[in-house]
């Protein structure tokens, strides 16, 4: 009836409307199929474009992959890829004798998937959110003599944000090269005046993928820079789940602080974080930075010569690979691949903490089969979430995980830490959640540590997080009301978008 009314209104023959509709359906289907997305996403886009074409086209222009393809082509056309070129700096040319079977496979996987060299960190500290993380961050910033590079998804104009910006401005006035890169969507609403003092002192601030210039620059809202990175003089690095805001760095107000972690490392491993920042800064500003001095260079030719004189491995400590992922990289899901391989290789235990848990089929199957193999699989998830639809989607997967033998515990507060402990020799911590958005859409970074000491420290943090956590039981799931099950089912349908 809609086609008939439309045809009469526009005085177009009904058969022509049918032909045009069929042609549009075929064209949209072929176009989306050729993009080689994941099957679930491909089907979702085809249905949206064919059944609700006006909304589908608008959503595709806003959330489609054109901007990512453009960025990937720009990366491939560059005569030098900064982050991949830096893999030659301070790397270990041979695998140490202590690297075990599972570790060897993961090291090679990260080398091939993300050009992530194996390096050593002289020192590694795992810092909880609030005072310990804030104090360590401000102490390192105060010691900076050459350069400070910061990259965050969220930067708030609150007490914690203003204190950090003031500390950066002070170092910029002292002659330190300060560069700040924030995600435009994550920090949406942050006034430009927040950084006035920093800019006046000589610091640089830019925003990743500004949404208001999407039509001009090919950026859009769907692919965000979710990384959290700080490097100090290229020898100290911070990364993890913390953003810049009171809920991460200021614990004065009871119950306000989120549960989160920040990794501080020193030594050669900090170069991995520096390489990720240099690549993102280049993409955002078109400015090439010399990783040996953090000064702008004349271009890739001079950078190539400088890289040849880069530092050799000099640290002695925990082994780590800094693994980035992003939709424009050659293998976009490098972090997901690394995590899935680790879970599938687990022999004794697999501890996971994540605030947003929406597993795709490979992750769900890896967790289920690990539990069925007898691995102690435990997941700590937030009991209350700042994104309710994600929590409903997460709980829709509880039944099958519990049936396989996984243990699920809900933390009483807002858990925001993202980490994993596998057996006694692998620990992973970074910005990536265990959901579709982090695995396939966002720009993320995670550190994979092959060290018993770091593994022990992180597993102790995990076990302490169980205090006060509520164990989810099969009995309570069976008694779940119909309304809750309907909400979970509806949220699960949206899983590919979460």
Commentary on this structure:
This protein is α+β, with helices and mostly antiparallel strands and 498 residues long. The chain has three domains: 2-64, no CATH class; 123-266 and 270-314, 2-Layer Sandwich (Endonuclease, Chain A); 334-497, 2-Layer Sandwich (Endonuclease, Chain A). Helices cover 45% and strands 17% of the residues. It has 22 helices and 16 strands. It has helices at residues 2-10, 14-33, 39-51, 53-63, 66-77, 82-85, 101-114, 131-143, 159-173, 196-200, 214-217, 246-249, 270-285, 300-307, 334-345, 361-372, 388-395, 398-404, 436-441, 452-465, 474-478, 482-493, and strands at 119-120, 123-128, 147-152, 177-183, 204-208, 229-232, 236-240, 261-266, 319-325, 349-353, 376-382, 407-411, 419-422, 426-430, 444-450, 470-471. Strands 1-9-15-14-13-10-11-12-16 form a nine-stranded mixed β-sheet, with helices on both faces. Strands 2-8-7-6-3-4-5 form a seven-stranded mixed β-sheet, sandwiched between helices. Helix 9 (159-173) links the parallel strand 3 (147-152) and strand 4. Helix 2 (14-33) packs antiparallel against helix 3, helix 15 (334-345) packs parallel to helix 16 (361-372) and helix 17 crosses helix 22. The radius of gyration is 24 Å and the shape is globular. It starts with a helix and ends in a 5-residue tail after the last helix.
CATH architectural grouping of the largest domain: 2-Layer Sandwich
**Order of strands across the widest beta sheet?**
1-9-15-14-13-10-11-12-16
The best one-word shape is: globular
* Major sheet details: 9 strands, mixed
Counting helices, strands and paired strands, the structural category is: alpha+beta
Q: Give the total of beta strands.
A: 16
CATH class of the largest domain: Alpha Beta
Q: CATH H-level name of the largest domain... which superfamily? A: Endonuclease Chain A
- By CATH, the topology of the largest domain is Endonuclease, Chain A
Q: Provide a count of the helices.
A: 22
What portion of the residues fall into strands of 2 or more residues? 15-25%
Give the fraction of residues assigned to helices: 40-55%
Poorly predicted tracts of residues: 214-219
Q: What assembly state would you assign to the polypeptide chains in this entry?
A: single chain
């Amino acid at each position: 009836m809609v086609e008939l009314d439309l045809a009469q209104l526009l005085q177009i023959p009904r058969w022509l409307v049918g032909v045009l509709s069929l042609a549009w359906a075929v064209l949209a289907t072929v176009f989306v199929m050729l993009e080689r997305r994941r099957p679930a996403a491909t089907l979702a886009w085809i249905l949206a474009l064919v059944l609700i074409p006006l909304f589908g086209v608008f959503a595709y222009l806003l959330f489609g992959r054109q901007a990512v393809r453009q960025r990937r082509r720009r990366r491939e056309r560059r005569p030098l890829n900064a982050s991949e070129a830096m893999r030659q700096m301070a790397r270990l040319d041979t695998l140490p004798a202590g690297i075990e079977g599972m570790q060897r496979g993961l090291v090679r996987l990260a080398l091939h998937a993300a050009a992530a060299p194996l390096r050593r960190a002289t020192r590694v500290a795992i810092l909880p959110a609030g005072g310990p993380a804030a104090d360590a961050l401000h102490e390192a910033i105060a010691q900076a003599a050459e350069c400070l590079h910061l990259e965050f998804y969220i930067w708030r104009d609150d007490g914690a944000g203003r204190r950090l910006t003031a500390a950066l401005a002070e170092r910029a006035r002292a002659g330190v090269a300060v560069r700040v890169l924030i995600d435009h969507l994550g920090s949406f609403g942050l006034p430009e005046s927040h950084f006035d003092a920093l800019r006046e002192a000589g610091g640089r601030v830019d925003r990743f993928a500004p949404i208001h210039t999407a039509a001009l620059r090919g950026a859009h809202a769907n692919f965000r820079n979710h990384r959290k990175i700080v490097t100090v003089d290229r020898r100290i690095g911070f990364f993890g789940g913390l953003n810049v805001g009171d809920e991460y760095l200021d614990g004065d107000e009871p119950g306000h602080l989120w549960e989160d972690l920040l990794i501080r490392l020193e030594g050669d491993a900090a170069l991995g974080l520096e390489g990720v920042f240099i690549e993102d800064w280049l993409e955002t500003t078109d400015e090439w930075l010399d990783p040996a001095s953090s000064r702008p260079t004349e271009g890739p030719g001079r950078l190539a010569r400088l890289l040849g004189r880069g530092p050799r491995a000099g640290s002695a400590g925990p082994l780590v690979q800094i693994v980035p992922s992003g939709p424009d990289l050659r293998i976009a899901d490098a972090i997901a691949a690394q995590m899935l391989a680790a879970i599938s290789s687990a022999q004794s235990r697999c501890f996971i903490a994540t605030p947003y848990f929406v597993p795709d089929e490979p992750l769900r199957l890896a967790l289920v089969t690990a539990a069925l193999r007898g691995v102690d699989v435990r997941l700590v998830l937030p009991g209350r979430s700042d994104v309710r639809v994600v929590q409903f989607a997460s709980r829709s997967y509880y039944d099958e995980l519990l049936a396989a033998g996984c243990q699920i515990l809900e933390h009483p507060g807002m858990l925001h830490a993202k980490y994993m402990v596998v057996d006694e020799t692998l620990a992973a911590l970074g910005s990536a959640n265990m959901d579709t958005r982090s695995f396939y859409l966002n720009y993320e970074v995670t550190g994979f540590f092959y060290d018993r000491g770091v593994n022990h420290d992180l597993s102790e943090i995990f076990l302490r997080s169980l205090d006060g956590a509520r164990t989810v039981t099969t009995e309570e799931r069976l008694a779940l009301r119909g309304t809750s099950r309907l909400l979970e089912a509806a949220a699960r349908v949206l899983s590919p978008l979460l």
